[in-house]
Amino acid sequence: MSVEMLSTAQYEKSSDKRSWLPQSSPPPRAGSRLQMGSHPVPQKQLAQFPDDEVKALAVRKQEIIERRESVLEAHASAMFLREDVPASSIAQSMLKDMSHVHSSGDHSVYVTLSPQDCIKVSDAGWGQRHGLAGVENHKVLAGFALSYQYGLLYSLRDIAEIQTTMDIVQASTSYLHVG
């Protein structure tokens, strides 16, 4: 069972109106929205891949994050909230796995954002909701829940898109960190 991945209706209904992205961010993403594969796992984009120069994306905020293998995506390096860092209930439900990059294949990035930031990112064309985001029976099957705010950021196509993606990942980190 998959959810509708482009709708922001569920985020608009949220009583949580906080945002960690600036009012005018992210800017509209150039070009058309990407064609995605038909399956929610693995959720992969089918076009507009990055060049070699942008395939290594690193976000460093050493005081609250650490890098290790993702629990949400096998064979992917992920950013986790460190064990000693207070985490929101959403971060805890996702085992503190905050973000990871599909390092083989499309190089798309997964993040969990506030409902308002989900709307901004989707409306600006930078990403979409994961097909299993908020699906309750996923926890029974996988042992963890994907927040309804869990989404895919389309892969970077060029160096100019790095800063916007880093800003979105930083908004995710700020949202999931309690402190």
Give the tags.
179 residues, alpha+beta, 6-stranded antiparallel β-sheet, 5 helices, Luciferase, Luciferase domain-containing protein, Luciferase_dom
Secondary-structure class: alpha+beta
What topology, given as strand order, has the largest sheet?
A: 1-2-3-4-6-5
- Number of distinct helices: 5
Helix coverage percent: 10-25%
Shape: globular
Described by strand count, sense and barrel closure, the largest sheet is: 6 strands, antiparallel
Order of helices and strands: HEEHEEHEHEH
- Stretches where pLDDT is under 50 for at least 5 consecutive residues are none
Q: What is the mean predicted local confidence, pLDDT?
A: 79
* Strand coverage percent: 5-15%
- By DSSP, the count of extended strands is 6
| CA distance, first residue to last residue | 35 Å
Radius of gyration: 15 Å
Report what the structure shows.
- The protein is α+β, with helices and mostly antiparallel strands.
- The protein is built from five helices and six strands.
- It is 22% helix and 15% strand.
- A hairpin with a 7-residue loop joins strand 3 (97-101) and strand 4.
- The chain is globular, with a radius of gyration of 15 Å.
In summary, what is this structure?
The protein has 179 residues and is an alpha+beta fold.
Present the secondary structure layout.
Layout: H1 9-12, E1 65-69, E2 77-81, H2 89-93, E3 97-101, E4 109-112, H3 115-123, E5 127-129, H4 137-142, E6 150-153, H5 162-176
Antiparallel strand pairs: 1-2, 2-3, 3-4, 4-6, 5-6
